[in-house]
Amino acid sequence: MNRSVHTMAAVVLMTAAAPTAVAQDAAQEIRIVLPEQPANLEPCGTIITNVGQILSQNVVEPLTVIDPITGQPQPKLATEWTSVDPTTWRIKLREGVKFQDGTELNADAVAFSINRMIDGKITCSNMAKFGDAKLTVSPVDDLTVEIKSDRPEPIMPTLLSVVMIVSPKTPVDQAVNDPVGTGPFTLSTFSPQTVVLDAFDGYWGKKPEITKATYVWRPESSIRAAMVETGEADLTPSIAIQDASNPETDFAYLNSETTAIRIDTAEPPLDDPRVRKALNLAIDWEGLAQLFGDDVKRASQMVVSGINGHDEALEPWPYDPQEAKKLIEEARTAGVAVDTEIKLIGRNGIYPNGAEAMEAMMTMWQDAGLNVKLTMLDVADWLRYLQKPFPSERGPNLLQMMHDNNKGDAAFTVPIFYRSSGSYSTLADPAFDKEIDEALAATGEARTNNFKAIFGKARRQVAGDIPMFHMIGYTRVGTRLEWKPDITTNSEIPLANIAIKD
Amino acid sequence: MITYLGRRASHSILSVIGLLTLVFFLTRLTGDPSALYLPLDSTAEARAAFARLNGLDQPIHWQFLEYLRNLLHLDFGESLRQNRSAMQVALEAFPETLKLAAVAITLSTALAILVGSLAAARPGSMFDRVASLISLAGASAPDFWVAIVGILVFAVGLGLLPTSGTGSWAHWIMPSFVLMLRPFGLLVQVVRGTMLSALASPYIKTARAKGLPRHKIIFGHALRNSLLPVVTVAGDLATSLVNGAVVVESIFGWPGIGKLMIDSIIQRDFAVVQSTILVTATAIFILNIAIDLLYAVLDPRIRY
Amino acid sequence: MTIITTDTKSVTAPGTGRLLLAYLKRDKLALAAAIFLAIVVLAAILGPWLVGDAASRLGLRQRNLAPFSLGSGWIYVLGADTLGRPILARLIVGAQNTAGIAAAAVFASMLIGGTLGLVAGYSERWYSHLILRLADVVMSFPSLLLALIVLYTLGPSITNLVIVLAVTRMPIYLRTARAEVLELRERMFVSAARAMGAKPARIIVRHIAPLVLPTLVTISAIDFATVILSESALSFLGLGIQPPDFTWGAMVANGRGYLTTAWWIAFWPGLAIMLTTLSLNILSNWARTVADPQQRWRLQTLRKAAR
């Protein structure tokens, strides 16, 4: 009785006290403010930013993790992997791992998790990384599984980084909001206001310093920044560039996102390479970069460095308005209808300052003599233009887009964008398709070089897109935390990597 | 009275059904949710499977019949985003909106009656001018602007209030203040206007001639007779707040139904859109009937 | 007293304009409001012609230029926005869309809502009930949902934004008009017209509508302000006017992210909205005072009161 009175009093005091006290009261607890509420906490959806940032490596763990610097897969729940033949991989599992509900991690549990992903009884976003590959999984012994695919899958260990292992007690035919995994934290609350994670005592690895993490969400960047500044929160993974004003707490990081404009190569006058090159040349890239911050990197291809296939030597298009005008004139004399109205299709809220960038680019293209008109669309409407089947009567169009490949390999980029079957691709070149297929089947150095050649061709000859920038994310980290963002921050924030300063 | 209530209720039910039907077909005009729920690089098979799992592959009139059939069993569908009952999601959010709306509308009406009456008591005075100007200015500013500036000043600059969120009483101050601005500004105008006419009417002159104290005349006699228009306007304002204060909820991270509705609309989470509209529309119709009843209480001449 | 008798007669007399001007001069606040609105209207008409080029010219190296900084020309006196475009020029050009959208939406909702209200109030037929249920539905239909549906199915454009705003404001006119008609149709002159065999349509248009109109016009002045604010709230949520078109509301919404670093981007358009809506409210208050015989003396006897 007495104790509950005390607790009551403490609660009242806590809630009535100044907000700053809340976050710092317990030194081992932290509060993280995300931009968006996670819609659900289904472990099969960890590639969705707001789900992954909470669950990934905290509650549930994958078989492998990608090293942020080299892009190579590293052991997590899998300790070793070997390719038995081109379509079969044998995976060794970690010993002595327990799920948060007490179940042991073994080959059956892994097979269960993979089957739950591929069965199609629940909507599994992570499956998309496997494309249309057909997998079969079979336990070999207690701690070994074999994964077979219907075609060679040279990057299977990389792909395994999206396979989140869940307890065999998880329902197979229903998406869940109370995931049970092997991670260092258990989910204790999921309400419309917060998600709370508590440390899991039976964790197999090193105990994290943090014992409790509370997640809240606010859509306005300035408010997230303010919350960390006032101490109401300790960390926010994403703030807008204009809010990143304090060098002590605000860190920039290359976030694996590449912004670009897709040119619809099937629609005249954009089917003419001269017009497409002119579009690339007419942009004042240095001026445009001002919108995204000093640390932003001009892009020449759709993947960032660190991804297998990225060509460091590939030069981006320069700003050359004279050359652009000349190319347009050449096309005009050759009978290309360069005065046709070209729709520039933007998407609301695609990235910070995205609408401003579209307005600026529209003006620059108009200055170059092209009849470009901007339309900003809502996500669902924009998607119709992004993905096949494209709307009929779409007309010549340029589409604002952003691509995020943090999975270590250009295979997650090239086929979707450049192969004629790719869901974003407007190209239809059988020769190019063949080169892409060869690259996808290759391994080792040949794979890297093939992808480099594809990016080179896409940039120099095809010019089917306008790569803009490798984007920079900004985080604000409270002064009592020791943590730096990296290329994986957009998909996960492992609490184990966060230390508390004394 | 009973027949009146019965008629109003049956009209309201008709309107709710009409509303739900309209929303059902209109929302489905806004595109296929599978594009939003699946990763951009999913295969066509995955999309087809998604549509099949969620009954989106059926013809739309069939989906509607299915919806109505489930409605009879009080099954409002599953949220696509949240993996749980859509009605549960809506009912969790609604009380948060209702609490905030109640605080905002009660406080602003009470304050407006006070300020408006005092302004009407001495028309043209300094108080009248300042009160009118300030209340109008408050009502004329975009609310999201006031909210963000408020946070920057009171939470970041002065450190007096929490930036956002829920919990202590301090969390209520800024959201309710922002929500109050517009109702307060409009109501001060209404109170002042009706009070001015009331104070000029013969019965007040009689009361004055009888030598009743000033405050009794204003708050006793004149006010009672000016309440009807105030109730009308306050009722309308309350209605719009019940529909969710999207901007305030979104900025302050208040887990209300307005934010839920806009998120579900943007995400094409149809079942949740339907459920939130069912909840808010029902509340609005109940509120409207309550306002009519309040008329009868305030004005003995009104009988139903 | 003589003044009052002359002007009660003069509501339609030729001297009305001058008299109103005289009233306006008495009320300094109303005068200021009228002048401000006149400037806004002028900007709306002439703005694009005067500074249209400056408003869309990029100046990426003048991004977020602070206000009152000299050296970049007078057009930059209020600073520059996130793309280095002069805010003053954008305010002037934006007045056209802002005022145009609000005016079109208010006019359309007044016309449609008023007409439906007249019909619903006068007739007891089935369509009157249908109109009332329709009003109920529209009232409880979230405007944001409507905005999204229209944006998606019809595409983002100024016309479609006007449709959204007009539909959501319509029930107010409908209900007001109906309430007035319910009272008016029992009056003597209507019964007389009916007895003389006038058709319902004629009675509504000739006898009732002219009496309902003033009330609707008064509401529309305040509603104009509401529409400007709702339009800016839609922009805040990304459902309002879409670039490259812009209004003051959209300017505030875009500038909100810069309140800590470049406050002027959201401040000036916010101030413009506030002053416009404030002026409208002040003027409509003033108009109500003028129209109300019990209150009009306040504007007439001020001269005597001044000692």
Indicate the topology.
The complex is a heterotrimer of chains A (502), B (304) and C (307).
Chain A lengths: L1 H15 L2 H7 L3 E6 L14 H7 L5 E2 L1 E3 L6 E3 L2 E8 L2 E6 L13 H12 L16 E7 L2 E6 L6 H4 L4 E2 L19 E6 L4 E5 L12 E6 L3 H10 L4 E5 L10 E14 L9 H9 L3 H5 L7 E2 L22 H13 L8 E6 L6 H14 L4 E6 L1 H8 L10 E8 L9 H5 L11 H12 L2 H19 L2 E13 L3 E2 L16 E2 L2
Parallel strand pairs in A: 1-12, 16-17, 16-18
Antiparallel strand pairs in A: 2-9, 3-4, 5-6, 6-8, 7-8, 10-11, 11-12, 13-19, 14-18, 14-19, 15-19, 20-21
Helix pairs in contact in A: 7-9, 13-14
Chain B lengths: L1 H27 L5 H4 L6 H10 L6 H13 L13 H36 L4 H15 L2 H15 L12 H30 L2 H8 L4 H29 L3 H7 L4 H11 L2 H29 L6
Chain C lengths: L1 H8 L6 H11 L1 H29 L30 H36 L3 H15 L2 H12 L3 H27 L3 H8 L4 H37 L11 H8 L8 H28 L5 H4 L1 H4 L2
Helix pairs in contact in C: 3-4, 3-11, 4-5, 4-7, 4-9, 5-7, 6-7, 7-9, 8-9, 9-10, 9-11, 10-11
Labels describing this entry:
heterotrimer, B: 304 residues, MetI-like fold, 13 helices, C: 307 residues, Peptide/nickel transport system permease protein (chain C), transmembrane helix (chain C), cell membrane (chain C), BP-dependent_transpt_permease (chain C), membrane (chain C)
Task: Note down, in words, how this protein is organized.
The complex is a heterotrimer of chains A (502), B (304) and C (307). By secondary structure, chain A is α+β, with helices and mostly antiparallel strands. Helices cover 28% and strands 24% of the residues of chain A. In chain A, strand 3 and strand 4 form a beta hairpin. Residues 1-25 of chain A have low confidence and may be disordered. Chain B has 304 residues and is mainly alpha-helical. Chain B has 2 domains: 2-72, no CATH class; 86-298, MetI-like (MetI-like fold, Orthogonal Bundle). Chain B is built from 13 helices and no strands. The N and C termini of chain B lie close together (5 Å). Chain C has 307 residues and is mainly α. Chain C has a single domain (44-284), classed as Orthogonal Bundle (MetI-like fold). In chain C, 74% of the residues lie in helices and 0% in strands. Chain C has helices spanning 2-9, 16-26, 28-56, 87-122, 126-140, 143-154, 158-184, 188-195, 200-236, 248-255, 264-291, 297-300, 302-305. The longest helix of chain C is centred in the C-terminal third of the chain and has 37 residues, at 200-236. Chains in contact: A-B, A-C, B-C. At the A-B interface, helix 6 and helix 11 of A face helix 2, helix 3, helix 7 and helix 12 of B. Chain C: Keywords: Cell membrane, Membrane, Peptide transport, Protein transport, Transmembrane, Transmembrane helix, Transport. Chain C: The chain crosses the membrane at residues 29-51, 71-88, 100-123, 143-168, 211-241, 261-283. Chain C: It is found in: Cell membrane.
